[in-house]
Design a protein that fits this description.
The chain has 77 residues and is an all-alpha fold. 68% of the residues lie in helices and 0% in strands. It is globular.
Length: 77
């Protein structure tokens, strides 16, 4: 179960960094550990773990960037 702090960190990272959100969350966790802020480190580590899961699920269903519309291509405008 996600805490409200972890959810806020997850949403912040996803909104700002998209596919790079997990790496950002891990960097924030490492920074917090260096500062000996273990509560914050735990929040960011948990957010990174959830982002990893979400991005793996997305990769299974997302279309490759080269063909975002599948076989259909948008009409030229």
């Amino acid at each position: 179960m996600l805490t409200s702090e972890t959810w806020a960190a997850l949403v912040e990272a996803e909104d700002l960094y998209g596919e790079g959100a997990e790496a950002h969350a891990l960097a924030m966790a490492a920074s917090a550990r260096k500062q000996r802020d273990y509560r914050r480190a735990h929040v960011w580590t948990a957010a990174a773990a959830e982002l990893h899961i979400l991005h793996n699920i997305n990769r299974q269903w997302a279309r490759p960037r080269g063909r975002p519309f599948g076989e259909e291509q948008p009409a030229p405008q």
